[in-house]
Amino acid sequence: MDDDDFVPISALQHYLYCPRQCALIHVEQVWAESVHTAQGRVLHERADRPRSAKRRGVRTVTAMPLAHAELRIRGIADVVEFHATAQGERAVPVEYKRGRPKTHRADEVQLCAQALCLEAMLGHTIPLGDLFYGETHRRVEVAFDDELRQLTYGTVTAVREMIAARLTPKAVYQARKCDACSLIDLCQPRVVGRHRCVSTWLAQQLHEA
Description:
Layout: E1 7-8, H1 9-17, H2 19-26, H3 35-45, E2 51-55, E3 58-68, E4 73-85, E5 88-97, H4 106-122, E6 128-133, E7 138-143, H5 146-165, H6 175-178, H7 184-187, H8 198-208
Parallel strand pairs: 1-4, 5-6
Antiparallel strand pairs: 2-3, 3-4, 4-5, 6-7
């Protein structure tokens, strides 16, 4: 299957945080670094080095490539722990996040998508995963129940349709989200009109300059 046909797992998290942010990154291919994204990148550096180690009955694999051929999603798991059980190893995906637990479910959907890939690759059900938050230095256990799985399936469909249509949603300024977004200067949520994409806005700025 063509690699371009696969949706990045990270796009699901971007979409649930803000559909416009997702389109800017995955349709218009723009990106900007901020203090928050830099801190997140540093937090991921250790997990981003592929390696495998075993300690106290737990085999830990970092930077593990994931893919689900039927859902056409792919990504890289920060950490996958394989716990020894009487029935064999039980996989537990662990995703590292810079901040603290969120009120929305974007992080949980990203983790659930990783679990779906692991289920397809390993051939057994994965009931639980963990989100590790750098600000609290704690893990949050996530149960991959039917509700979360259906939300994940729906998000995959929504992201795929948006990318295929190559449409960027209109800008809607929300202080809590927009002010923390590294793309705010490119997005210009207070300025960009309803039907104008970022590339159009940038072209106008260059023309006026």
